[in-house]
Design a protein that fits this description.
- The complex is a heterodimer of chains A (385) and B (218).
- By secondary structure, chain A is an alpha/beta fold.
- Chain A has helices spanning 47-54, 77-84, 102-112, 117-130, 146-158, 176-193, 204-210, 228-233, 238-243, 271-279, 310-318, 336-339; strands at 2-12, 20-31, 36-40, 62-67, 70-71, 87-91, 164-168, 196-201, 213-218, 221-227, 255-263, 284-293, 296-306, 322-324.
- Chain A has a 6-stranded mixed sheet, sandwiched between helices. A 4-stranded antiparallel sheet of chain A has the order 2-1-4-5, covered by helices on one side. In chain A, strands 12-13-11-14 form a 4-stranded antiparallel sheet.
- In chain A, β7 (164-168), α6 (176-193) and β8 form a beta-alpha-beta unit.
- In chain A, α4 (117-130) packs across α5 (146-158).
- The longest helix of chain A is centred in the middle third of the chain and has 18 residues, at 176-193.
- Chain A starts with a strand and ends in a 46-residue tail after the last helix.
- By secondary structure, chain B is mostly helical.
- Chain B has a single domain, classed as Orthogonal Bundle (MetI-like fold).
- Chain B has 10 helices and no strands.
- Chain B starts with a helix and ends with a helix.
- Classes of the chains: A alpha/beta (385), B mainly alpha (218).
- Chain B: Keywords: Cell membrane, Membrane, Transmembrane, Transmembrane helix, Transport.
- Chain B: Belongs to the binding-protein-dependent transport system permease family.
- Chain B: It comes from Paractinoplanes ovalisporus.
Chain lengths: 385, 218
């Protein structure tokens, strides 16, 4: 749906012709129809420029951008305008017209595309219902909460029935609960309307909650990109590291420390207990969790295996898990977990056979941190709300 | 001077001031909006970026704004004659008033339009809005409270300028104050015109503020 090849964009520092800032430095990107693709990066990584190049708010210096099979870099002004009707965009600070009501803001997008007044009225009502804002049609943006403003932004972006939605840090100005509700809405629209979503964000939660594909961007380039499920299995993947931070030592005397990743259906197999039972060894979980991502269920652990761990590693691999040696730098400086490990009790928790594989747990082991020895805390999970 | 003479004088002065200020306000609103929009559009990074046009316009505006109004009044006399056919009277005063106020209001328009967040303009562009839609439905519409507030300031400045219209026989309240109050030492006329001017300016400001409050949804 979106196809970007060799995109480059350079800014000239104001007043000084020799100082150039390369914002996007040769990016290739393909977003399939109906995909939710997240570009993750810190501010200044060039992700905003990348996004603005997709609808030509910024003209790329080099490279091609095509959306829905139409090469945008080749269009004249008028045809670009028409092409833009098929590309919705939402913004970090909502970018609503303060002088217009909620209904007026949505209607603006329809006025721009030349929809008649009568048709506008029904379509606006439809759109407001779609985003859950019916009843607030006559409110002004200043009377709305952040989440409601973004809903107006989304309704407006969808007014012209685009196939593609670009999201420029759409949840960065929102609190966690509101972020959640907006992400749910985006995912819902993606499913119901078959909307292709390309978003940029610096928030891991966004990728976790709604992205099926993702890229990590740094200094204008993609460090890694692809399906989230595949990236998790890549050794040294930054996305995997950020989605599942493993704050634990990378070596334990007399044992072998490995990072294990499981994805899809494998995430719900009681794999660790299986290894333990079949090979009759103790497996210690130093850190890790199993989580439900938009890309599917996935689990990632840092384990301490007895001896050289060869048999266990072999077994884990045979069951579809990726096993790698932890990166040496992964015990990030100043990690609070690091200091609390005393010699002889190197465990942050371990697992008990047969436990449901969700989240982190601890049972019957010399426990670190807040667990008091001999009396592990056990509770039944709450129903998700 | 009797009360009826005084009120007669005041009524005439008020009518002349209202006429001069009213007509030049309308002309200034149109001219200033056009010039202000042009300044914003042609500025670097604007929708019609044209560096040369932009700096020429900016220069012309600055020159016009540098001239003391009394000098402008005299300097444009040939132009006034060409436009209204005479160089004296209220109608003749409208010409320099408008010429003096347009650059003033244009700068205010420029500042008000720049207050519209670039984000909002980008959003409209991303939606596929034309440039004229962006100017009409986004820039001017969003800046309305600022434009009205700016026009209020301009009207009040015009009331001040119009006091000098007496030089070309323009009349009005200000001229009344100068001729009777200052030159003839008729203090009561002075006081009366000053009170009338204060009331006039108050009314304009209140009306402007009310309108701004109505338009503003921030």
């Amino acid at each position: 749906m979106i196809e970007i090849k060799g995109l480059r964009k350079t800014y000239r520092a104001k007043g000084r012709r020799d100082r150039e800032v390369v914002a996007v430095d040769g990016v290739d990107l393909t977003v399939g129809e109906g995909d939710v693709f997240g570009v993750l990066g810190r501010s200044g990584a060039g992700k905003s420029t990348l996004l603005r190049c997709v609808n030509m708010l910024e003209r790329p210096d080099e490279g091609s951008v095509s959306v829905g099979g139409v090469e945008l870099t080749a269009l004249n002004r008028r045809r670009l305008r028409l092409a833009r009707h098929g590309i919705g965009m939402i913004h970090q600070h909502f970018a609503l017209l303060s002088s217009r009501t909620v209904a007026g803001n949505v209607a603006f997008a329809l006025e721009v595309t030349g929809v008649s007044r009568a048709e506008r009225r029904t379509r606006v009502a439809e759109l407001l219902e779609l985003v859950g804002l019916d009843g607030r049609a006559d409110a002004y943006p200043s009377q709305l909460s952040g989440g409601q403003k973004q809903r107006v932004g989304i309704a407006r972006a969808l007014a012209a029935r685009p196939k593609v939605l670009l999201s420029d840090e759409a949840t960065s100005a929102l609190d966690p609960e509101t972020t959640d509700s907006i992400l749910r809405l985006l995912l819902d629209l993606n499913r119901r309307l078959g909307l292709t979503v390309l978003l940029i964000t610096h928030e891991m939660t966004v990728v976790k909650r709604i992205c099926r594909s993702a890229a990590v961007m740094r200094d204008g380039r993609f460090v890694e990109s692809g399906a989230v499920a595949d990236l998790l299995h890549q050794p040294g993947s930054e996305l995997a590291r950020d989605l599942f931070p493993l704050d634990a030592p990378v070596s334990v005397p007399g044992q072998t420390v490995v990072d294990v990743t499981v994805g899809g259906e494998d995430a719900d197999v009681p794999l660790l207990s299986e290894v333990s039972r079949r090979l009759d060894i103790d497996v210690q979980v130093l850190a890790g969790s199993v989580e439900t991502l938009a890309a599917g269920r996935a689990g990632r652990w840092r384990l301490a295996l007895p001896g050289d761990g060869a048999a266990a590693i072999h077994y884990l691999r045979s069951r579809g898990a990726s096993v790698s040696t932890p990166p040496v730098d992964s015990l990030s400086a100043g990690s609070p977990a690091a200091g609390s490990f005393s010699a002889g009790s190197p465990a942050a928790g371990s697992f008990s056979a047969g436990s449901p594989a969700a989240g982190s747990f601890s049972a019957g082991s010399p426990a670190a941190g807040s667990f008091s020895a001999g009396s592990p805390a056990v509770s039944t999970p709450e129903e998700p709300s | 001077m009797t009360w009826s003479e005084l009120s007669e004088l005041l009524a005439v002065g008020l009518r002349e001031t209202a006429w001069m200020v009213g007509v030049s306000t309308v002309l200034t609103a149109v001219g200033g909006l056009l010039l202000g929009v042009l300044l914003v559009l042609t500025a670097p990074g604007g929708l019609l970026a044209a560096p040369v046009v932009s700096s020429v316009l900016g220069f012309v505006v600055n020159v016009a704004r540098s001239l003391p109004f009394i000098i402008l009044l005299v300097a444009v006399i040939p132009f006034t004659r060409a436009v209204v056919g005479t160089t004296i009277g209220t109608d003749a005063a409208i010409v320099p008033l408008t010429i003096g106020a347009i650059p003033f209001f244009a700068r205010i328009v420029e500042a008000a339009l720049r207050e519209v967040p670039p984000d909002v303009v980008a959003a409209a562009t991303a939606m596929g809005a034309t440039r004229s839609q962006i100017v009409g439905k986004v820039l001017l519409r969003e800046a309305r409270p600022g434009l009205v507030a700016g026009l209020t300031i301009t009207v009040i400045a015009l009331v001040g300028y119009s006091a000098m219209a007496g030089v070309v026989g323009g009349g009005g309240l200000g001229d009344l104050a100068i001729r009777y109050g200052y030159q003839r030492f008729e203090t009561e006329v002075m006081v009366a015109t000053v009170v009338a001017l204060i009331a006039f300016v108050q009314l304009v400001q209140m009306a402007g503020d009310l309108l701004v409050r109505r338009l503003s949804h921030k």
